[in-house]
Amino acid sequence: MKVYHSNNFKIGRKIVFDNEPYIIDSSEFVKPGKGQAFVRLKLRKFSTQQLIEKTFKSTDVLEQANVTEHTAFYLYNDGNFWFFIKNHTFEELLVEKKIIGSNKKWLLEQDQCSIILWNDQVISVEPNTFVKLEVINTTKFHKNNNVNNSTKLVELSTGAIVKVPIFIQIGEFIKIDTRSGEYVSRTK
User: Fold this and answer.
1) Is the Cα dihedral 7, 13, 16, 20 positive or negative?
2) Most buried residue, 14, 134, 175, 187, by most Cβ within 10 Å?
3) How does residue 148 score in pLDDT terms, banded at 50, 70 and 90?
4) 167-175: long-range contacts, CB 8 A cutoff, minimum separation 24
5) Confidence band of 83 (pLDDT split at 50, 70, 90)
């Protein structure tokens, strides 16, 4: 298996740490006035998106993770398993509910998404960065002291609850940023 030396700990590299696949979010080489140089990394775990910070000596090496990303379409779910089909090979993938996690609120049938595999096992499902969802329910608006920042809660077609401006009505489609879960704009 390929390994990375500390001088090759670059942002975006996929590595194995504590027998789990991670991606390097940031890398900082530090050469103190006294003592050995080291590298400070921020690592994001693929399966949970948890961010950790670790320090490595300049002599340390990390194993490259055999992580692949595939584009797939979400087909349906039966409550416990979610079914996807790869775009190019038409291979069907079965994904457990726990792997989908909170991303289920951004997936509609026939939506395209990214499937992350590690050693041929699905470890993460990532929806598109922006999704278009229908508002199916809304709460009553309670006027705030600040009129320019008035929002209300709405329920979307996937069951997600999002804060939106007060002018959004039931039946409208809105654009949501799946990374933050925030309203972006109205769409048609």
Assistant:
1) positive
2) 14
3) low
4) 168/135, 168/138, 169/135, 169/138, 170/135, 170/136, 170/137, 170/138, 171/134, 171/135, 172/134, 172/135, 173/132, 173/133, 173/134, 173/135, 174/132, 174/133, 174/135, 175/130, 175/131, 175/132
5) very high
Coil, strand or helix at 171: coil
Kindly state the average pLDDT of the residues 60-72. 90
How far the first Cα of the chain sits from its last, in Å, is 49
113-119-122-125 Cα dihedral, nearest 10 degrees:
-40
Number of residues that make up the chain: 188
> Which pLDDT score, from 0 to 100, does residue 156 have?
94
Note whether 80 and 33 are within 8 A (CB).
no
Phi, psi of 149 (to 5 degrees): -120, 40
The pTM (predicted TM-score) of the whole model is 0.73
pLDDT on residue 141: 65
**CATH code for the domain in which residue 37 is found:** 2.30.30.30
- The CATH number given to whatever domain includes residue 115 is 2.40.50.140
Domain that holds residue 73: 69-127
How many structural domains is the chain composed of?
3
